[in-house]
């Protein structure tokens, strides 16, 4: 698989780099007072005030000598993300070493702003580079995880079907010494994953369940067992309840949950968190064909819960329920799932705020707090169990849909049915996409809640 260079916006040689003054509006005033009259006149003429998202070049004898980058919240990576595209090409280095917590945000924001998806198209001028003699390795790993999500989601379906998603997960497993297996096609029926098979059986690309495990050897038996589950619907036509054209246009992104889960698993292994890790990805294409599953069918599931198909476009929860049931069989300490599950979550919270559901208040609180610290926000939504009435079926144990009311809540309640009682579990209904471009957020695939999830897991590991 071809991915964008993860660190294209960086250099480790600062010898020829131009100075970059990184200032917020409050710090700009004090800095300006210490400058020569000519510099103050230059900046006054341009009415520069270091507003967030601004920049200005400072002249010198040989042309551009330095620049000022105006920022807002110094802990927010996106405060710095305009720099790679706004500054001239070449190397830039901070004129004054930032505080450690600000340095990580600067490095991450610069990398996000330098991102280009170039697999099919030349993106023009190269981004300006941040010259750091000793880049922070953990920040680079977090950046690589964000880029992994973007690249996977941005890749069109012809190059990112279930088999290609398997290749990526297998490569990740091999790189980190993890075990890997894939259950493909009719073997899903033999291995008792009937719901995954039902959704994916109409496609010419065989459905599959991907399973990666890491950290189960040696003296790691006491480490907590984390299971990550990601919705891997590599394209979603809606099935026989077909989507309209505008609703189908970007459905290459319906494997965005799998992209998040794979990237987080890769990050956990790269940083060697003291965990035992299982990654489960049901990878399918929800296609239309003679063998497509139909509205009104009753689908068997791994847990033995029968599901009436009210809507074939509510397929994500159907493939996830088998994966969650298997996750529960592993008796883990924690289950996290990621899914581009409902339009209702986007209507409620918009594209930037993933909807968090959890059956454990401490888990939800930890993830929310990590989101605040990392400036990677998410919003908790209720598992309002009276709304299970919207999933009532007359002929099966549960329906996969049934009402336009509280769609994100009912989807989460459906998933909860397949999680063992007493097992801490959180579900993130994530958009995985930017509808329009902003600094550091190009139109296309996006990692949301991922940095917060990693920070939450790291903090929990530190607490023992």
Kindly report the CATH topology of the largest domain: Aminopeptidase
Structurally, the number of domains stands at: 2
Measure the end-to-end span: 37 Å
Low-confidence stretches: 1-5
CATH class of the largest domain: Alpha Beta
Radius of gyration: 24 Å
Strand content: 15-25%
Domain Cytosol aminopeptidase: 311-318
Pfam families: Peptidase_M17 (PF00883), Peptidase_M17_N_1 (PF21337)
GO molecular function, one term: manganese ion binding
Protein name: Leucyl aminopeptidase family protein
Outline the structure in words.
Helix content is 34%, strand content 20%. By secondary structure, the chain is of the alpha/beta class. The chain folds into 2 domains: 16-131, Leucine Aminopeptidase, subunit E, domain 1, CATH 3.40.220; 141-463, Zn peptidases (Aminopeptidase, 3-Layer(aba) Sandwich), CATH 3.40.630.10. Strands 7, 8, 9, 10, 11, 14, 15, 16 and 18 form a 9-stranded mixed β-sheet that branches. Strand 15, helix 13 (361-374) and strand 16 (379-380) form a beta-alpha-beta unit. Helix 4 runs parallel beside helix 5, helix 10 (256-270) runs parallel beside helix 15 and helix 11 (316-329) runs parallel beside helix 14 (407-416). The longest helix is centred in the first third of the chain and has 18 residues, at 137-154. The radius of gyration is 24 Å and the shape is elongated.
């Amino acid at each position: 698989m071809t991915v964008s260079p993860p660190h294209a916006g960086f250099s480790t040689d600062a010898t020829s780099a131009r100075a970059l003054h990184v200032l917020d509006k409050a710090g700009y005033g004090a800095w300006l007072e210490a400058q020569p009259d000519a510099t103050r006149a230059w900046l006054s003429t341009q009415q520069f005030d270091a507003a967030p998202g601004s920049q200005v070049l400072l002249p010198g004898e040989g042309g551009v000598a330095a620049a000022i980058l105006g920022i807002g919240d110094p802990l927010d990576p996106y405060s710095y993300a305009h720099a790679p595209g706004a500054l001239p090409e070449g190397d830039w280095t901070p004129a004054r070493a930032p505080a450690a917590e600000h340095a990580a945000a600067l490095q991450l924001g610069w990398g996000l702003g330098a991102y280009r998806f170039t697999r099919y198209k030349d993106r023009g001028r190269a981004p300006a580079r941040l010259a750091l003699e000793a880049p922070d390795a953990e920040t680079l790993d977090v950046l690589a995880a964000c880029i992994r999500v973007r690249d996977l989601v941005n890749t069109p379906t012809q190059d990112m079907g279930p088999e290609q998603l398997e290749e990526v997960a297998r490569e990740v497993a091999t790189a980190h010494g993890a075990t890997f297996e894939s259950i493909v096609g009719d073997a899903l029926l033999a291995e008792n994953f009937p719901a995954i098979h039902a959704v994916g059986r109409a496609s010419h690309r065989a459905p599959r369940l991907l399973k990666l495990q890491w950290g189960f050897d040696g003296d790691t038996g006491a480490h907590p067992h984390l299971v990550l589950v990601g919705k891997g619907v590599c394209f979603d036509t809606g099935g026989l309840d077909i989507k309209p054209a505008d609703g189908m246009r970007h459905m290459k992104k319906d494997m965005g949950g799998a992209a998040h889960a794979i990237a987080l698993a890769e990050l956990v292994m790269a940083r060697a968190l003291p965990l035992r890790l299982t990654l489960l990805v049901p990878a399918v294409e929800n296609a239309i064909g003679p063998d497509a599953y139909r509205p009104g069918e009753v689908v068997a599931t791994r847990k033995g819960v029968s599901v009436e198909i009210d809507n074939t476009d509510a397929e994500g929860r159907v493939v996830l329920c088998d994966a969650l049931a298997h996750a529960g069989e592993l008796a883990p300490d924690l289950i996290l799932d990621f899914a581009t599950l409902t339009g209702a979550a986007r209507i409620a919270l918009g594209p930037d705020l993933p909807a968090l559901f959890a059956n454990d208040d401490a888990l939800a609180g930890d993830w929310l707090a990590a989101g605040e610290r990392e400036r990677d926000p998410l919003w908790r939504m209720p598992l309002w169990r009276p709304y299970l009435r919207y999933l009532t079926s007359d002929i099966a144990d549960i329906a996969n849909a049934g009402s336009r009311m509280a769609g994100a809540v009912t989807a989460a309640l459906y998933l909860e049915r397949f999680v063992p009682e007493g097992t801490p579990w959180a579900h993130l209904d994530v958009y995985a996409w930017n509808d329009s471009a902003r600094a550091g957020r190009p139109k296309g695939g996006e990692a949301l809640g991922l940095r917060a999830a990693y920070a939450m897991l790291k903090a929990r590991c530190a607490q023992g």
